[in-house]
Design goal:
- The protein is of the alpha/beta class and 267 residues long.
- Helix content is 48%, strand content 12%.
- Strands 2, 3, 4, 7, 8 and 9 form a six-stranded parallel beta sheet that branches. Strands 1-6-5 form a three-stranded parallel beta sheet, with no helix packed on it.
- It is elongated.
- It binds zinc ion.
- Zinc ion (ZN) binds at residues 83-84, 134, 138, 175.
Length: 267
């Protein structure tokens, strides 16, 4: 049982106990519980919703859903992942750099970006990179969509990727790394493995490439999944330096399916 369900169970048991106490004993016994009932109800409800909300932003806690954030290995092996593409300008430069260094990466694609970039996606698969699902719209409101709408976005992106590559992805990366009860409900009993990361480069926020690189290198560890974006100036201009530095630190860069020992596509 994921911790969210346990918290929900505990919330309702406490709520019920509080109600029963106040109905059967409260008035006659008086005391703290009866006199501060409103405060206690407020505290209980705020705690429940506050914890649920906060944990949606910590997907690796597995609070709302089972999420994979790294590989279990003693090997000095890590994976590089790129989100938010394909980008018609930056992605080809990244593919070229990966080929030069013989590195296989994983690209989590936004469905709406696939149109007119089909050749790039074909190239990724031909060059043995992996392609995953990163929603269709990547809307700022994605995490507040209904489970049905979230699921239909993922199925549409799967369909587009399959039309282009012939492969049906099993790896899903939630937009913004947010996994709340709505996302969890959408994923329930579906085929996707939810993949996040344990090294967030912040390449979309930080502008100093030296700091981005240092942050990644500082956090390197066996089984690490590194989050980058094929849409940022950092990956466009500084990927080569990063790849070299990772290799110089004694790490090999492997595809995500090898790192996680999981298939990337449905058979
Ligand atoms: Zn994204």
């Amino acid at each position: 049982m994921v911790p969210f369900r346990r918290l929900t169970l505990l919330f309702f048991i406490t709520l019920l106990s509080l109600n029963l106490w106040n109905i059967f004993y409260g008035k006659s016994a008086g005391g703290f519980v009866f006199n501060h009932a409103i405060l206690l109800y407020g505290l209980l409800i705020t705690t429940y919703f506050g914890v649920s909300f906060a944990m949606a932003f910590l997907p690796c806690s597995n609070f709302h859903h089972h999420v994979i954030c790294g590989g279990v290995t003693d090997d000095h092996a890590v994976s590089i992942t790129f989100d938010d593409g394909p980008d018609p300008v930056k992605t080809p430069l990244i593919l070229k750099m990966l080929e030069k260094h013989d590195v296989k990466a994983t690209f989590f694609q936004i469905g709406k970006h696939l149109t007119n970039n089909e050749q790039l996606v074909k190239q990724m698969v031909e060059e043995e990179h992996l392609v995953g699902n990163h929603s269709y719209s990547h809307s700022n409101w994605f995490d507040l969509f209904s489970p049905d709408k979230i699921r239909s976005e993922l199925l549409e992106t799967d369909r587009l990727i399959k039309n282009i590559t012939g492969k049906s992805p099993l790896f899903f990366r939630p937009p913004f790394g947010v996994v709340n009860p709505l996302v969890s409900m959408a994923l329930k009993n579906m085929h996707w493995k939810t993949i996040c990361w344990n090294i967030r480069s912040l390449d979309t926020m930080k502008t100093d490439p030296r700091k981005i690189k240092e942050k990644i290198l500082r956090k390197l560890k066996p089984g690490a999944i590194i989050l980058l974006h094929d849409t940022t100036p950092f990956t466009e201009h500084h990927l080569e330096a990063l790849l070299t530095a990772i290799k110089n630190a004694g790490y090999k860069i492997v595809p995500l399916d090898i790192l996680l020992k999981l298939p990337a596509y449905a058979s």
